[in-house]
User: What shape does this take?
Amino acid sequence: MRRYLGLCLGLFLTAAVQAQPVVRTVFPPQEYAARRAQLFDKIGDGIAIIEGTTERPGEQPFRQANQFAYLTGAAEPRAIALLDGRTRATYVFLLSEKTSDVTSKFGPGALYPGESAAQTLGVTAALPRDAFAAMLAKIGAERRIIYTPFAPEVLGSASPYDTALLAKLTRDDPWDGRESREQAFRAKIAKVAPNSEIRDLDPLIDQLRAIKSPREIAVLREATRIADDGIAAAIRAAQPGMTEYQLQAESEYVFKRAGAYGPAYFALVATGQNTWYTHYHYNTAILRAGDLVQYDYAPDYRGYASDVTRVFPANGHFTAHQREYYDLYVALYRAIMTSIRVHESPREIRARAVTKMDAIVAAHSFRDPALRQPFRDFVDAFRKGGDQMLGHAVGEAVHDTYGTYKTLEPGMVFTIEPMLRLPAEHVAMRLEDMIVITPQGYEILSAELPLDADAIERMMASSQEHARHGRSSASSHFVRGG
Assistant: This one.
């Protein structure tokens, strides 16, 4: 049973489920005010300035950049936030209202300068964007430290590593060479406030984002419930002859019906030998009887990601060979999971897990001797992880931040996804679950999605039985590949 988070959070989640996908603020103003209060404590007498993202090119849905959304909740293009550490005041600068925006583009609900927007956001004032320059000049005259993000912004379906790498490749490209939007913004700040020291704001926000609040965990819980339901739909629909992208469509229907804004990342649907590739995403191969499918897909729900992976047989039945290495992998995976402790370092957790894993492998009677070395390599790779955090953090981005934390602390949300490779067969396998650290230990947010081979086969058999009686999934509307 999933834990009850209290009446207030229950009501919040009910509202979240019923809300339209496009939302102006995900949380009440008090949530953002609490985050800014922590940031004020970090910047002292300084100033924090951060830009929101721009309008989207073409007919694309607007999604706010993560750092800006975290501090303000404002889902408006080209917004600028200024946080004054001396007065602990927050000013949001918004584009002024245009008739065409209301009658054609945005419709009702957009925020414009004025008291109404300030109340909605819970900030000191919502001012016209044109007023930002004068306030910045005044700050510059005071020679105060200015904090602003150095790293490229992160939007939906992306993570900090992705955007940083793209910025580097663009900068190093001899036929491009553009600087990032953040570099250009810093240069403009320096021109208006030449006597102010400019520092990187990202590490300060990242440290706050590493520990999720109860409201954030509630949203991540719902995002994971939707992910579980979407993956379950794909497992039930799977059958030989389908294409990978048709299987993906089963989950997308569930995601959108539940109010997801979009995917948290490109669907990683890999069948057969495609499972070898960690981020395979062509999604055009045909499911074959006898192949395993690795399915890694989750939604972007109210600005927060989930990340769940399951493995299942295309035809509903594991072969004896597949069941041997799948069951052994699950046993090792659970050895890692059950070794997690709050307030411990990854090194401590790895040491505990490896002791269990070595014993499991040593006790296993390999029906296929060729499997012995790949499993030894799997355990050794985990053993060598050392101080690396387990898996990756999840939050606004699917690969979120741990900040500077070196131990697992309450409020951290992350996945583990150790990969097993079988080189002789050119196949691989990994499972992945959403985990939240609690004061008592941990909770698996994705625990309701079956993991055991028997449970997966029962789920697929039940679906096939329903299909034989005329009840089929959304996949019946697709033309089968083949």
In short: The first strand starts at residue 47 and ends at 51. Confidence is low (pLDDT under 50) at residues 1-21, 474-482.
